[in-house]
Design goal:
By secondary structure, this protein is α/β, with parallel strands linked by helices. The protein has helices at about 5-15, 35-50, 65-75, 90-100, 115, 145-150, 185-200, 215-220, 220-230, 240-250, 260-265, 290-300, 305-310, 310-315, 325, 345-350; strands at about 20-25, 30, 55-60, 80-85, 105-110, 130, 140-145, 165-170, 180-185, 205-210, 230-235, 255-260, 280-285, 330-335, 355-360. Helix 11 (about 260-265) packs parallel to helix 12. It is globular, with a radius of gyration of 21 Å. The strands form four sheets. It has a six-stranded mixed β-sheet with strand order 2-1-11-10-12-13, with helices on both faces. The chain is about 35% helix and about 20% strand.
Length: about 375
């Protein structure tokens, strides 16, 4: 028997095994996996009632909320294609991506309803507009929660999905030209989930803080990785040091992913803000030498050089100071902070912070 590789299979397994475990925390909202997947099923049913069929595109513009996370399950299990859009872009970019992807439904957080209303005239292919928040009673918008609540969780058919079917279209930010769409299949995502869990094992008791945008490469596939592990998603709508450390403390966070800018902002936060610690963190960057140097200067003598951790990588690809050798490489930093039990200011200064650096190849070719 052959079963197509898909993130949906990990979701099915987690629903069966961990249905009563806490799945999602979004401010005051807490959902078990059974509650979370029930919401996903209801939204799949609602999308089907709106005319979404297999292969159709559904665009999302939202920060890291439970509704955004639900899209990574509700849309694909219809056989439709998710288009998560960078909410930091301009209205013009929104219009281009929505049109270029062929999205027929646009779901937007309350912060972006005005931006979408301002370009409605350009969105000739969009049939339905859904307000994930802040849309109750707003003309021209369906309210997400109202629509979801009134939908039957069993009111849709799960089509046969091949592993080569399109799962998401992820757009670049258009820094040098128009945004470009990257097509991710079910197989692409499933293999990345397995590879990530082999490389950075996660367990049932882990609690993952969403500091990395879900729109960014599908949150480095952690939108599905955390679920596959039966761990807990802790949503974070705005990435600001006080909010991050408050969530770490309040929700007993053990994992997070972040760009170097975010890690640097956390390292530079006042001492009274950064009282707590993470067991693991992951950092992705293209400018390896520069960012490793900045992180090392911030984190002190407990930093293990990447050349010491990856001799085989150095042997194969040469000096990592050569920018050609690191092009296309995803750098993963695993942070383990070990408390010494001392509460003194000096102990906080010398945190015994250890970074274990691993890297895997994104595109194994040199120009």
């Amino acid at each position: 028997m052959e079963v197509p590789l898909s993130p949906l299979e990990f979701a099915r397994r987690t629903r069966r095994l961990y249905r009563d475990r806490e799945a999602v925390v979004d401010e005051d909202l807490r959902l078990t996996y059974e509650q979370f997947f029930d919401r996903c099923d209801r939204w799949s049913s609602a999308l089907g009632a709106l005319g979404v069929r297999q292969g159709d595109r559904v665009a999302y513009i939202a920060p890291n909320t439970h509704a955004q996370l639900e899209s990574f399950y509700a849309v694909p299990q219809l056989g439709a294609v998710l288009v998560p859009i960078n909410y930091r872009l301009t209205g013009d970019d929104f219009g281009y991506i929505i049109g270029h992807s062929g999205a027929t439904v646009v779901c937007a957080h309350g912060d972006y309803l005005d931006a979408i209303d301002g370009i409605r005239g350009q969105l000739t292919g969009v049939r339905e507009f859904v307000a994930l928040e802040g849309g109750s009673g707003r003309e021209g918008w369906l309210d997400y929660e109202d629509t979801l609540r009134s939908s039957d969780p069993g009111g849709f058919e799960r089509p046969a999905i091949d592993e080569t079917d399109l799962l998401t279209i992820n757009y670049t930010s258009g820094t040098t030209a128009r945004p470009k769409g990257v097509m991710i299949t079910h197989r692409n995502a499933a293999l990345n989930i397995v590879g990530t869990l082999l490389h950075l094992p996660m367990g049932l008791d882990d609690r993952y803080l969403w500091t990395l945008p879900m729109f960014h490469a599908n949150g480095w596939t952690y939108t599905w990785v955390v679920t596959a592990a039966g761990a807990t998603h802790v949503c974070l709508r705005k990435v600001e040091p006080p909010r991050v450390f408050d969530a770490i403390r309040r929700e007993r966070v053990t994992w997070m992913c972040a760009a170097p800018t975010v890690l640097i902002s956390l390292a530079n936060a006042p001492a009274e803000v950064r009282r707590d610690h993470l067991e693991r963190a992951k950092n992705g960057t293209a400018d390896l030498d520069r960012d490793l140097a900045r992180l090392r200067s911030l984190m002190g003598h407990r930093y293990d050089e990447i050349r010491d951790s990856l001799p085989e990588l150095l042997e194969r690809y040469g000096d990592l100071r050569d920018p050609r050798a690191v092009k296309g490489m995803l750098t993963r930093l695993r942070i383990s902070r070990v408390r010494k039990g001392a509460e003194a200011e000096s102990a906080a200064h010398d945190d015994a912070l250890e970074l274990k650096v691993a890297a895997e190849l994104g595109e194994p070719r040199l120009n």
